[in-house]
Amino acid sequence: MSHLLDYPTRLRASTEHPEVVYTRAEGYHAIKNAPRAQERSAVLTIKDDNDGSYVILKGEPQAFGEEVSAVYQGNGGMLVVPTGRVFVRLDEGASAQAYAQAFRKLGFVITQLLPYAPHAAWLEREDGDAAAALRNVGALEKLPQVCNVEPQLLAARALR
To answer: pTM for the whole thing?
Structure first.
C-alpha cells in the first residue's frame, strides 16, 4: 500500500507529449469507490469505465488503504486521478504479448491486449501498487521498440 508521498511529484501525460505535465495536488487525495458518507464531502467525483468512481477529497486521508490515491493537477487547475494502469504502445509490427516477460521483469503484467492493435497493451503493477507504476514509467520507456507510455489519468467529463 502506498502513502501519498510515494507518488511522483510530477507526472508526464505521455512519452509522445512530454510537455504535458501534471503536478501532484497537495492537500487532496482520492478514494476509489468511497462510501456514501465520503461522497457527500467530495470536491469532485470521477466515474471510471467499470461503473466505479474516484472521489476527490480535500485534506489528508484518515486511513491509508489500497484504495487511496494521489490527485494531480494540470494546467488550468483540472484535477485528475491516476488509476495505476499504464498504456504501452510498441513500434508497428512488434507484439505486446512478446514483451510480457520484459514487462514482468519491471513488475508489470499485461491486463488487456487489444485485438485491433497487437502492438499495444494495458499494464498494471503485479502488486497493484499504483504509485510504483507511476514511478516506473521511465523504465518501460527504455525498453526497445517502446514508442509511447501513458499512465491512465481519469478526469471529470466536460460537457460541450
So the answer is: 0.89
For the chain, the distance separating the N- and C-terminal CA atoms, rounded to the nearest angstrom, is: 38
Mention every residue, 6+ apart, whose C-beta is less than 8 A from residue 57. Answer: 28, 29, 30, 31, 34, 38, 41, 42, 43
Has residue 35 got a pLDDT over 60? Answer: yes
CA angle, 45 then 47 then 50, to 5°: 150
| CATH number of the domain bearing residue 142 | 3.30.70.80
Using the 8-state DSSP alphabet, how is residue 12 labeled? E
Q: Are 25 and 40 in contact (CB under 8 A)?
A: no
The SS3 call for residue 10 is strand
Instruction: Tell me the residue range of the domain where 65 lies.
Output: 4-80
Tens of pLDDT, residues 116-145: 999 999 999 999 999 999 999 999 999 999
Q: 74 and 121, same structural domain?
A: no
Cα-to-chain-centroid distance, residue 148: 14
Asked if residue 160 is part of any domain, the answer here is: no
